[in-house]
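batch_manifest entry 22 of 60
target: acetate--CoA ligase
source organism: Nicotiana sylvestris
requested by: lab member K.T.
priority: normal
notes from requester: please return tokens only, no post-processing; we will run our own comparison against the previous entry in this batch. if the run fails, retry once and flag.
--- input ---
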Amino acid sequence: MAPSTKNSVILGEALASEEVNLVFPTEDFSRQAHVSSIQKYGEKYGRSVEDPAGFWSDIASEFYWKQKWGQPVYTENLDIRKGKINIEWFKGGKTNICYNCLDRNIKGGNGDKIAIYWEGNEPGHDASLTYNQLLARVCQLANYLKDIGVGKGDPVIIYLPMLMELPIAMLACARIGAIHSVVFAGFSAESIAQRIMDCKPKVVITCNAVRRGPKTIFLKDIVDAALIESAQNGINIDVCLTFENESALKKEMTKWVEGRDIWWQDVVPKYPVTCEVEWVDAEDPLFLLYTSGSTGKPKGVFHTTGGYMVYTATTFKYAFDYKPKDIY
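--- output ---
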């Protein structure tokens, strides 16, 4: 039996053993899907386990690499008896995830297409950015960050709600090789302080407030409390870049620390709309995400650039069956 056929049979048996009601897609939907049948899935799965190097190399080749990776495509050691636990993907390759998200799509003719739709708290409070507009905003912030001394490998904490400035900040960090650490904008001052004391960021990016339903959440006040706590423990932050979310709170009503706090709108738009890309190694850190801390102190987990870029794009493509005209 061929491997792909064997995998299909195994998958079929697994489905048959469950007491579930199966709902099958229409023929038209299946025809347009990235994986049109369980048999096709079996073929892809079969290759992924029988030839993982070839499988992932083919997918990675769809992205832009300033320098292609060497061989082997990946290495792993999951046996501590053989040494340090370690997994590496696309080692030797150089790329940049911001370039792949934005510049690559613009060069592919998508510059005037919408990259982000944003919906605010109130009906009718919405906005959008094209790829060209998003790249310009990202480059302005990236240039500002560089100007205040943020560079490759430097941590940046982002404490923002669902504003367009959140992905802008993430992409700006990625463009210059800085390591962003997004903190959920519902966490306490203590939680933010823990992360600040652990990763020692060059800057904290936040906004003054956000509306959630009928409530106003004063995010800047929470950050202020976190910065006081971290300072008491010897970690001082020189810059708190604050976006004025005027729909939630006016600038003049925001508590302020002169010399540390900077309004995003006062500085970022003054910077050039182009910014040179920092090409990073595939194994260089992209971002730092902390565990929940449910079993103790939150632990920072690094996600590296090459493997994260390739795997998340692949997951989104196949799990969500994403097509160019779809909106998420």
